[in-house]
Amino acid sequence: MERSNSYIFIYSIVMVVLVAALLSIASYSLKDTQKSNVRKEKMQNILSSIQIESTTENVEDLYAKYIINSYIIDAQGKLIPYVLEPNGKIFDTVRAFDVDMKKLYALPRAKRTLPLFEAQKEGEKFIIIPLRGKGLWGPIWGYVALKNDNNTVFGAVFDHQGETPGLGAEINKDKFEHMFKGKQLFDTAGTFVSVKVKKGGAAPDDIHGVDAISGGTITSNGVNDMIDTCVSSYASYLQSNKQ
Length: 243
Description:
By secondary structure, the chain is of the alpha+beta class. The protein has one domain. Helix content is 37%, strand content 20%. It contains 8 helices and 7 strands. It has helices spanning 5-29, 31-48, 59-66, 91-98, 101-104, 174-177, 217-232, 235-240; strands spanning 67-73, 114-121, 124-134, 139-146, 153-160, 196-198, 209-211. Strand 4 and strand 5 (153-160) form a beta hairpin. The chain starts with a helix and ends with a helix.
């Protein structure tokens, strides 16, 4: 028996509504899992900057072991006073981890409140600065860990949303990240000069430069600008807290 056009139309609408409802329910039910995965991935990236490898199973334990504190500082490099919750827990420790870096760097520099993490590994202390920038096809981000001189890079980790495989996407490979180890942010006069990602390559004795990715010029420039913009925001704090 042939179906009328109205029957087919109504049937199609019902199916579309039903499928949309099922997808909505599935998305809602997975929301907590997605948040947990994002949180764990962020912890893994922070730990990677101090060369601690982790898995989704052990990352929370390792994070609690190595990340000993976190802070919020203002644009002048001054620590924002801690706010204690009724149970005595330091509220700023949570706030630093949960800062939305995209929203943060959309603000004028004077209005930014910057997250900062403190780590300890094998008796040595490090500070870890989160980064956020723009690549060729979308956002890029990362973390740079500094030795306790607040100048020398101990480790760096980068990631991206959709850079070109084999080109810009190479920013999250060991070959690129390892070049930052030992580089310095300040010159001998104490002026912030950042770490430059140089097209054509940095000289072997350049303590402020690393090689850009061949064929990934725009992404390399994005990493360069990201480090300069983000880390320079911490320059006052770094200079006043050198050890």
